[in-house]
Input
Amino acid sequence: VLPNNINLLGSSYTRDDYTNVTDRIAALIGRNLHLQKCHPLNLVQQRIVNYFYKTFVNSRQNPQFSVFNNLSPIVSVTQNFDSLLIPENHPSRAKSDCYYINREYLLRAHMTAHQSELLLAGLNDFLMIGDVYRRDEIDRTHYPVFHQLDAVRLRTRDNLFPDGKLELFESGNNTSYIGAQEKQPCHTLTAVKLMEQELKSTLEGLAICLFGNVQFRWVDTQFPFTQPSWELEVFYKDDWLELLGCGIMKQAILTNSGVTDRIGWAFGLGLERVAMCLYQIPDIRLFWSKDSGFLSQFKVFSVDENIKYKEISQFPQCTNDISFWLPNNDQEFSNNDFYDLVRSIGGDMVEQVQLIDNFIHPKTKKTSHCYRIIYRHMHKTLTQAEVNVLHAKISETARQKLGILIR
Ligand code: PHE
Output
């Protein structure tokens, strides 16, 4: 039986029907890779912070942006969703996608969760950097904990229109379009256009600062907390890679935090993505490695030094499949439940889990899933015998905890 409380970062929380933080995930809270000296995520973070420090200075040549890189990853549902106008029924709130501590608290799913509180504190230009938690598939580019850098910049009417002739706000139903995307009715088109220009040139500058002379493109998108919204993609290794999401902040977020005279832009970017490209790191699990063979490669004097990661060694993969019938009420089963279970037992010895077959029996109407689990340790060769023990434990635990029937 589970104890009724869960202890995280020195506080105790009451478990309820929403609790789904696993011990393995809990053990990663507080590692703060982005704060670890000479860690690749720390190098990337510093490069981005430096870019903002030098790009935006006040009249006394001091940086305008404040940096918050030590905010607690435990946030309320209000912070993570409500304060950002994310609708009650939005898929990103699902239990199957988030690590809930209970119905009231969760491990933040994005750094944007802190936007409102910092606005309320009176800040105008700030960066928020930290670890975020999402239940997801398992492969070389996904890990349930990763790191994001978010930014907010607010501008007043004086900032945008120094000659005092134009306005930030209007009370019309002016349906002006920017590309395919409507502006918010409360904003003047000129103000939005100026904000869009500053946002895009700032982020293009950032992409060039990080990657040098890359090709990039803007893609229209949607977020509940910005409008209009865009994604910036860069062309990397024969493919378009989504680097960040951004947009003009929903005005209601500002007014709910007591800001009535400013308009803002915001963006959020994943640090692992950037570091994997920049240093050619092939597998996202490596960021969590304590092996000096990995970490020593990032001991540099300057964060701008050119580093190319050299693989410590490539140990062989070991592949085992598992097939089972889902519980009779297959609504109860989510693929992420199985992924979390595999992670809890296999840990970082699991490189990938793929759903390779999914069918419904014509007579019994039962659903069958077959998953391929690819085992590979980062620092040693796994024997088939070791893998068999793990694999058997995974199937036995899945039988007990998920109510599935092994085939
Ligand atoms: N929070 C968004 C994400 O995690 C990124 C984002 C931040 C988009 C701020 C717009 C503005 O994908």
